[in-house]
Amino acid sequence: MKVYPYRRLTGNVSWRVVSAQLKAEGEPWEDVESKYLSTIERVVALGPNDDRPDWVQARLRLRAELPAKAVNSGDTWQDVRVVAVLTERATNTRTAVELSPVAADGRELTGELYLHRCDLLDRATLAVHVVATVDGVRGRVISTSDVEWFVDVIETAPSLARELDVKLLGFDSGASRLRRFKDSPWVVDTTGRLPAVRVNTDFDGLEGLMGGDGGNGAEKTVRELLLTQMCSDVWTAVFHSAVGDLEIEEDGTPLFPHGWQGEVLRAMLPDVYPDRDPEDALREVHAARMGSSAAGWGELQPRIHFAASKRAGVPRTLSTTIRDLERLTQGDDA
């Protein structure tokens, strides 16, 4: 748990994106259809669409509600303000807007955030912070909302989940960067915008096995097991990549990265350290990686392997595979 040298606001700061509009060059603002905005997934999908003009600017309408104690705090906090901040790691974009009260009690606030398409490459994160003057110091963050929204300029469906980029390539006969892996059935590439899996079609029999839907019972069983193992490898690779991409505050506190790296860590850390909250778990992983904790990086690997296997469904698939093989063996004996 992070410790602050001043009193923080407790209670939930609820907020959401109410609506979105897009503007093409020289054209008026047009409403974004509600199907591109998901309150459940907390995603606004602004990816290219045939029914949508090539937009150059977007406008998001935001609404937030503060706990009563934020506006009735006496002398604890002065000049309380709510700020929405949109950030995208890929382009180092950071856009902020202050929300304004719409009711006399000052608890309900609204605002409009403007963003330019040229400033965004992929998926930006939108968060809300409450700042105030505390003990004479202006601009101290006294609360940050637990929820984040995402503004996606690639996808057209407002979903947190994304399909993994899987390509079939000949490692031995293909690009030189893949030849060193010619004996591997697949590799996971985490250097791009999204993680990608390259399947080696030069690996004898692999393309036919993994690319087909049919086959006999044994082939289906092996294919399912291979796909599960590939998913486990992907989860392991993206976890290590995400941990290596942390931002560190001046006091040494690691921060969750934006984009898919942050999503991976938030998904896996509860299985890596089930008895800790996500922030504590991230701090422990960072300390182990830097060699400053009793549990070294090596000791952490079984936990990461367990979390990756669980996410990929390895235990369930392996149990099914064993039962299927037993049935196949009994069938052959009969």
Structure description:
- The chain is globular and about 80 Å long.
- The protein folds into two domains: 14-152, Immunoglobulin-like (Sandwich), CATH 2.60.40; 214-326, no CATH class.
- With 334 residues, it is α+β, with helices and mostly antiparallel strands.
- The chain has helices spanning 68-71, 176-179, 206-211, 217-243, 260-272, 278-290, 297-312, 314-333; strands spanning 14-24, 29-31, 37-38, 43-45, 55-65, 78-88, 93-101, 108-116, 123-134, 137-144, 149-152, 165-169, 186-189, 196-200, 247-248, 254-255.
- The chain contains eight helices and 16 strands.
- The shape, in one word, is globular
CATH architecture of the largest domain: Sandwich
> End-to-end distance, in Å?
61 Å
Largest sheet: 11 strands, mixed
Helix fraction, binned, reads: 25-40%
Mean pLDDT: 87
Low-confidence stretches: none
Name the CATH class of the largest domain.
Answer: Mainly Beta
Number of structural domains: 2
Briefly note the structural class of the backbone: alpha+beta
CATH topology of the largest domain: Immunoglobulin-like
Spatial extent as radius of gyration = 24 Å
Number of strands: 16
- The percentage of residues in β strands lies in 25-35%
> Strand-and-helix sequence, N→C?
EEEEEHEEEEEEEHEEHHEEHHHH
Number of helical segments with 4 or more residues: 8
